[in-house]
Amino acid sequence: MRRSLVIGNWKMHGTRTSNRELITQIQTGLNEGQNCDVAVCVPFTAIPDASATVANSTLRLGAQNVANAEQGAYTGEVSVGMLSEYDCQYALVGHSERRQIYRETDELVAERYEYAIKGGITPVLCIGETDEEREQGKTFAVIDEQLSAVINHCGIDSLSKAVIAYEPVWAIGTGKTATPDQAQEVHAYIRNQIAAQNADIAEKLIILYGGSVKPENAAELFGRDDIDGGLIGGASLQADSFLAIINAA
Ligand code: PGA
Q: What pLDDT does residue 219 have?
């Protein structure tokens, strides 16, 4: 039985004050017996405050990216060791905004994933097709490509230490959610592809759905067999809506 996971992705939002308030509200709103694990991936500069706030609570902390090297001349990057000092447990890798705006390739994403695992942080590997790719019937081909880049680089066993987030690019921040059927279809595909190489890893793997998850659609999405929770952008920026999504999991 997989335990659900809900992760907030705050992206580049907030101020020091507003982010402190938000994390405190989320933490206060979590009831002890929640049925799922919860984490927030905050901007790098919010990590020290957030780390102090979540210490000794069930709320976990994550980063929105991680360097593809341990240390050295990598201007603008933050290493897994630096994140571990603040007890970050997760790091997003390959978010579509990184792939599209910053031209991160499958190879670079695979390297980031590798360094997260080596450093003991769980990479949340984001994969998903664009609108155009879906129209052209290329959804599964894109998934295969993004997934195999990581498997070829780090091996299938690495997925026992990772989380996957299926995020159709056309659903991110657009208010256009994949239907539960559309999402389940791709989640099942991902799990089957992995099961073909290692059934045990596939069975235990947490696969999150991301893309305009809201309190109104969360329960239906999370109710599907292969959807183990969500990666939440916009709706994680308000404690009320994020907590409502957590309660749906
Ligand atoms: P959204 O973002 O929930 O605002 O669509 C999801 C994400 O980018 O992780």
A: 97
The pTM assigned to this predicted structure is 0.97
- 126, 172, 237, best to mutate for ligand 1 pocket (most atoms within 8 Å of CB): 172
Count of residues making up the chain = 249
Domain assignment of residue 19, yes or no: no
Ligand 1 pocket test, pick from 6, 42, 131, 167 with the greatest ligand atom count within 8 Å of Cβ, gives: 167
Query: Is residue 90 situated within a structural domain?
Result: yes
Ligand 1 atom nearest to CA at 172 = 5
Quick one: residue 38, left, alpha or beta (phi over 0 = left, psi -120 to 50 = alpha)?
beta
Does the C-beta of 64 come closer than 6 Å to ligand 1? Answer: no
- In a domain? residue 20: no
Interior angle at CA 193, CA 94 and CA 147, nearest 5 = 15
Segment 94-123, tens digit of pLDDT: 999 999 999 999 999 999 999 999 999 999
For the stretch 199-215, pLDDT in tens is 999 999 999 999 999 99
Dig out the tokens for 241 from the structure.
């809506």
- Count structural domains, the chain: 1
Task: Give the number of the atom of ligand 1 that is nearest the alpha carbon of residue 92.
Answer: 9
Name the residue range of residue 180's domain.
4-9+33-248
The CATH code of the domain that includes 153 is: 3.20.20.70
